[in-house]
User: Fold this.
Amino acid sequence: AGKLCRYLSREQAIAVGFLRNDVGISDVQVRDKHGDLVVLEIDSGKSRISPVWSAPGELKALNVQTEVQASVIEISGGGELGSAEYTDHLTAQLEALISDYVKETLQASKDLKSDFLGLASAVERSNGEYFRLLDRPFPDLLPELELTVSVRGHLRHTNDMRDS
Assistant:
């Protein structure tokens, strides 16, 4: 009714960028395998929304596949960027973090029964015929939808000054 419902956190705002395929540059923090703080700079990413239909007009779930690319910009400890195991650990930490951000943001959309993420457009583009057969407006269906989120991360390079 034209009133402010809720503010999104910084983390949720980052997820909005992924879900709307408009990712800006953001810094996030993860822990390496030694527990040391590592700052990553997210520089690009995107999401693909895939609806799951049980029948025409019967939307059951949404699968969200997100990709994130980032660079290491700071390591508080020794770091082992030359090690594949170390890089794999950082990538897994990045994937888990973005997955949490995306899940929290999708849950906010469900809780508010508000499609501020433009999910309906993605669902309609995937199968307009099925979408037109929905018996209720998309925002009313949101709370009932099962959501599956998967994230694939990639560390492109490092901006850590110690590597110079």
Residues 160-164 have pLDDT under 50 and may be disordered.
